[in-house]
Each structure stands twice: as C-alpha cells, then as structure tokens.
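User: Could you go from structure to sequence for me? I need the amino acid at each position, not a summary. Structure tokens:
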C-alpha cells in the first residue's frame, strides 16, 4: 500500500472520528423546547416571557392524522418502507415538508419525528397552527 493511500485513509478516519464526537451534542439538542421549559426561573413574569419566546422559536410543528390508519414511510413516496402506522386522531410532530409522490392530488409529505424519522403524506395530516417549513 502506497504512502498516499495510507495518508488518505488516515485523513478519512480522522474526519469520521471528529464527526462522531459532534454527534452526541446534536442528538442532545432540544427539538421541541420541553427540556428548556423545565429549567425556567421561578419568577412568573420571567417564565411568561421565556414561554412566549419558546413558542415563537419552536422548531417542530404539530399535526393530527385524519386517515383511519396512516403508513409512515422511509421516503416521501408510497414505495418507501413502512416504518410504523399512525392512527386517526394521533397528534404527530412535524419537522419539515417536501414534495414527493402525489397522493390524491397532494404532493406534500411531512417528515415526522415521533420516536423515529418517517414520512407521512400531507393528504392525511391536518396541521395545527402554522404550515411547516420546507426541508
């Protein structure tokens, strides 16, 4: 094995090690603001202003499943592997939306963060509040 090959392998291994060190910090990120809520001050006026800013800066959106049973998939199309099923009335957390396979006239799919990352057709999820951002 040449010195050049060994060097490129070492550089790649170093990059992987560096990215592995960064992953726990990203995984501990508070996506829905729940962790920061538990650390609020006991001062009611300060808690209220912090709560308002948290609602304004939330990264997740909420939706309700309208289908009797909705397949949540690994890709934004009907060919994606089914990750799990969501039942009618279930409240789901939406990270973002994208265009995918057309489902009864609706091409939008939502990336859901409920335990696993899975795609659900927007045709069968009613958004509560503002429309999710684009992925």
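Assistant: Here is the amino acid at each position, in order:
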């Amino acid at each position: 094995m040449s010195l050049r090959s060994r060097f490129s392998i070492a550089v790649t291994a170093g990059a992987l090690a560096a990215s592995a060190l960064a992953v726990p910090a990203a995984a501990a990120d508070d996506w829905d603001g729940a962790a920061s809520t538990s650390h609020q001050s006991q001062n009611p006026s300060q808690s209220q202003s912090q709560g308002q800013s948290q609602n304004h800066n939330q990264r997740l959106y909420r939706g309700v499943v309208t289908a009797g049973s909705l397949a949540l998939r690994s890709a934004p199309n009907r060919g994606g592997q089914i990750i799990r099923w969501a039942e009618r009335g279930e409240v789901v957390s939406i990270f973002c939306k994208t265009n995918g396979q057309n489902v009864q006239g609706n091409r939008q799919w939502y990336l859901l963060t409920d335990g696993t990352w899975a795609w659900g057709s927007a045709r069968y999820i009613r958004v509560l509040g503002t429309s999710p951002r684009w992925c």
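One structural detail worth keeping in mind: The first strand starts at residue 61 and ends at 65.
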